[in-house]
Amino acid sequence: MKASFSLLLIILLVISCNTPKVFTDYAAETNFEEYKSFNFYAIENSGLSPLDGDRVYVTLVDSLVARGFEEKLIPDFKINFYAEVFDQTSNSNFGIGIGGYAGGIGTMVSPQSSKRTIALTVEFADGLTNNLFWQGVVEARFKENLKGKAREEFIQSLVGEILQKYPPEPKK
């Protein structure tokens, strides 16, 4: 029984380390029901390859239209997105030490691993005032060697994770 519980904890730990983390923020006074149509700011400096930028764009459009939003030339809100890819160093350290009172011997082993990470940010701003009213960021491990359909599905999952948090749950 103990062994299966330990195995379950290890599996949960491994899974939780690889799941995307989503962070959102929004203007408290926002009435999200006012925003029914969208369009995009110029998509030039997104930090993504042109192909990945297109993937994010198409996924955002498809996802928002499926949720009842309409893409319009003069929208209720405008969308901006950008990404940053970076190496994230793990904080897991352990030490081994041997020593005595005087003239001791000491050593420390501190393995650190670096994981390629992507942070994709999606911002919604009022179409008239350009005031930012909602922002979502997803961080996930990034396998840069993904190609074709696998990369497309990865991008779709990132956008899906962000949009799950829009609109925010009303406070009770």
TrEMBL record:
* Record keywords, A-Z: Signal
Q: Does the keyword Zinc-finger apply?
A: no
Every DUF4136 domain range:
22-168
A Pfam family it matches: DUF4136
Look up the signal peptide feature and give its range: 1-27
What protein name is recorded for this chain? DUF4136 domain-containing protein
